[in-house]
Design a protein that fits this description.
The structure is a single chain. This protein has 762 residues and is mostly helical. The chain is 55% helix and 6% strand. An eight-stranded mixed beta sheet has the order 2-3-4-1-5-6-7-8, with helices on both faces. A hairpin with a 4-residue loop joins strand 2 and strand 3. Helix 8 packs antiparallel against helix 13 and helix 19 packs antiparallel against helix 20. The longest helix has 43 residues. It is globular, with a radius of gyration of 29 Å.
Length: 762
């Protein structure tokens, strides 16, 4: 490893999403790692082979490459697709309007919803194994013929057969645990970064915390989620084990005795105990938490072992046509509970919507938390319905009954729960409504976006010649398309409304009414309406299944294609930025390593000379989070240069409680406004940090905020330079470091960093 030259200013570049290489960040083909490891490291151009692209004279350039944390391993990247619902449920809580959570209500509701997702996956696997295979398929000769892997189960009585198949969902839970914890040691374990400035030195922009429980990105240990994840992981395992135990005991209820009833009460008590723990805050004392976890683990293991042993020794259970006793009611009840939780989350979010920081203007009308929570439930329903229906289709040899082709009398119908039919129908309806809402929204906003683009064109190119009109039209269209991001709100809100109504329709399943039955009742004696409803529902099932299968294909391609891995990694870079405080099986939070590691490196470099943290796109978010975790001694020697930054345009509106305008003002105050942000009108992601095109009031109106944002004209011209053969390209989101404004901003920031006083060393 190389050492740093003392006193030399350092430009520390942090890349955005999609796992950029060190060579691309430094814009040089020959690099060497000077700190970190292969998961996340700091790189410089090898001495003697030139300088980094866009380097400023007298400033050393260093790159922080963190993309391998999410896109480095094919197995990790592909397996994360299975965890998509869990990741979405974890992201939901961070979109709340305010970080204050009186009595922990919103956090408790989100944790309960996350627990229901784990239970829904467990029930789906129970349905595919115990219900479809063990209860419905194996007893029928036509279903198990030519399938030796099922024939041996026919020799077992019903209860022992279900006991054997109950091991599959338990192993699946263990698999989810392993996937969620995979590579966690590379992500976590870096501990809390150095505490920020003390409260006594709070900047004018910083507001004192209220009496409610609040947290911010400047809180020491904010990114360390290991303790919370460990606590929640044991609870979710207890929920899964209790779900399997209850399903197994209900399946053998025909042969119940006193011991079976006591075990059922114990399993229900286990689930109830886990539900109560989800509602409570995580204990701060490690000894108390350890006692709870040991008690929970011992209880879950004992109840599960006794339940499987009881079922294996039970005789006299008779198989009946249809589904396993209690299974359909469990699925319907769980989905109905999810719908109720979504309603409560939405109501609580709306009630607290006015508490968002001034000037934040939250995206999605402040409904980000319930919307993403509904999305997690919808994706989980798609996964579980696809699993159950495709297993049923395979076992039934493609002869799933419909109104025209009922099953032969000799073959018992393989019946998935009606709940999944409702879920498929709701998914199809939501997809159609979102498509229509997107088309209407984009068409309705087209004139407004084009008018705004026209004003930019008139300001930037007032003297453009007539032969440049085609080029001007292309630039105008590019600017208009770059503002589509702001128009997604109505589309997503429509999805939330339709999804919630779809979950509400599942309540009909509690009384045994499916889509076909309700269509027949509405239409009276008209058989055609019921047939149409059946085929529409089947179409919904297939469309949802194809979407899920498409995700699996993408996951398979991730094993072979680095490009596919980078594409998938973009989603994970955005979704796994926040700590896992809601669902423990979500992919690990890479910022749990990246932010403390950046803070440590910046502090070490600042002890030797000025440091300009240069963040592109999502890298500017990591840079901002790092500034909030830097110690006081390092802050006076650090500046921030962001470009193509979504901090205000996306993050301040999606996450107003954590990266809202108040937080952006705090960053500027901590750095004494040594901050420059480069942006372009053609950039679909980046934008100004302090957008004064909006209506006042502004959270902080310091004169220094006016110097933060530096707008770059793009393209630089619409005519061909005499020394060139083509007009300048439209740069959009990349690159920025090759522009003269970048070097000018970097030089200005390094000059603003005051040298230490007296004999204080760099």
């Amino acid at each position: 490893m190389e050492t740093d030259d003392g006193g030399e200013p350092v430009e520390l570049r942090v890349h955005g999403v999609s796992g950029a290489s060190a060579e691309k960040i430094l814009d040089h083909p020959i690099t060497t790692r000077v700190a970190g490891d292969r998961h996340a490291g700091f790189y410089r151009v090898r001495p003697g082979v030139g300088t980094a692209g866009g380097a400023t004279a007298g400033v050393a350039v260093e790159a922080y490459r963190w993309g391998a944390l999410t896109a480095g391993a094919a197995v990790r990247t592909a397996s994360m697709l299975l965890l998509l619902p869990f990741m979405l449920s974890n992201v939901a809580i961070w979109l709340r309007p305010s970080s204050a959570d009186r009595f922990g209500l919103l956090g408790g509701l989100c944790r309960l919803l996350a627990g229901s997702l784990t239970m829904s996956f467990t029930l789906a696997i129970v349905g595919a194994t115990m219900n479809l295979v063990g209860w419905q398929c194996v007893p029928y000769v036509q279903c198990r013929e030519d399938r030796p892997y099922l024939s041996w189960l026919a020799a077992l009585p019903v209860a022992p057969r279900l006991a054997v198949l109950a091991l599959v969902p338990l192993l699946a839970v263990r698999l989810f645990w392993s996937i969620g914890a995979r590579s966690a040691r590379a992500f976590e374990g870096f501990g809390a970064s150095t505490p920020p400035p003390a409260a006594a030195h709070r900047r004018p922009c910083q507001q004192p915390q209220s009496s409610e429980a609040t947290e911010s990105l400047s809180t020491p240990g904010f990114w360390d989620d290991a303790r919370v994840t460990s606590w929640l992981r044991y609870i979710h395992v207890g929920l899964s084990a209790g779900t399997v135990d209850i399903s197994l005991l209900m399946g053998v209820s025909d042969g119940w005795n006193l011991a079976g009833r006591l075990l059922l009460y114990a399993a229900v008590g286990l689930v109830a105990f886990c539900v109560v723990l989800l509602c409570l805050p995580v204990p701060t004392e490690s000894g108390r938490a350890l006692r709870f976890l040991r008690l929970l683990w011992a209880t879950a293991a004992a109840v599960t072992v006794l339940t499987i042993a009881y079922a294996a020794s039970t005789d006299g259970v008779r198989t009946t046509v249809g589904q396993m006793p209690g299974y359909e009611g469990s699925v319907a009840g769980l989905v109905a509970a999810q719908g109720l939780l979504l309603v409560l989350i939405a109501a609580l979010t709306l009630a607290r919507q006015r508490a968002h920081p001034a000037g934040a203007r939250p995206f999605l009308y402040g409904l980000g938390t319930p919307l993403v929570a509904a999305l997690s439930v919808s994706v989980a329903s798609a996964f579980t319905a696809t699993l159950v229906f495709r297993v049923a289709d395979q076992l039934d040899r493609g002869r799933i009954p419909d109104p025209f082709r009922p099953n032969p009398p000799t073959l018992g119908p393989l019946e998935p729960p009606v709940t999944y039919w409702w879920a498929a129908l709701a998914g199809l309806t939501a997809l159609m409504c979102v498509t229509v809402a997107a088309a209407v929204t984009l068409l309705a906003s087209r004139r407004r976006r084009r008018a705004g683009a026209e004003r930019v064109i008139e300001r930037d190119y007032p003297d453009a010649p007539a032969d440049a009109q085609p080029r001007l039209g292309m630039v105008r269209d590019t600017i208009a398309r770059s503002h589509v991001t702001e128009e997604l709100g109505p589309m997503l809100v429509a999805f939330f409304v339709i999804s919630s109504l779809g979950l509400a329709a599942v309540v009909l399943d509690l009384v045994g009414v499916g889509p076909t039955q309700i269509a027949a009742q509405i239409s009276g004696r008209s058989r055609s309406t019921a047939v149409l409803a059946a085929y529409v529902t089947d179409a919904g099932i297939w469309i949802v299944s194809l979407l899920v299968i498409g995700l699996l294909i993408v996951g398979f391609r991730a094993y072979r294609s680095a490009e596919t891995r980078r594409l998938v990694a973009v989603l994970w870079d955005l979704g796994t930025f926040w700590p896992r405080t809601i669902h423990p099986f979500a992919p690990p939070c890479y910022a749990a390593r990246a932010v403390p590691e950046l803070a440590k490196r910046v502090s070490a470099l600042a002890a030797r000379g000025p440091v300009v943290v240069s963040g592109h796109s999502h890298g500017s978010v990591l840079a901002a989070a790092t500034v909030l975790q830097l110690p006081s001694a390092a802050l006076s020697r650090v500046a921030l240069l962001s470009y193509g930054s979504p901090l205000h345009r996306i993050y301040a509106r999606l996450y107003p409680a954590y990266l809202g305008q108040q937080t952006l003002c705090e960053i500027g105050e901590r750095l004494d406004w040594r901050w420059r942000n480069l942006w372009r009108d053609t950039d679909p992601i980046g934008g100004p940090i302090f957008d004064r095109r909006r209506e006042p009031p502004y959270p902080c109106d310091a004169p220094a905020t006016r110097a933060v944002d530096v707008r770059l004209r793009d393209p630089r011209a619409v005519t061909v330079d005499p020394a060139d053969t083509v007009p300048p390209p439209v740069e959009r989101h990349w690159p920025y470091h090759t522009q003269p404004e970048y070097q000018a901003a970097l030089r200005e920031l390094t000059d603003q960093i005051r040298p230490p006083r007296g004999d204080e060393p760099w």
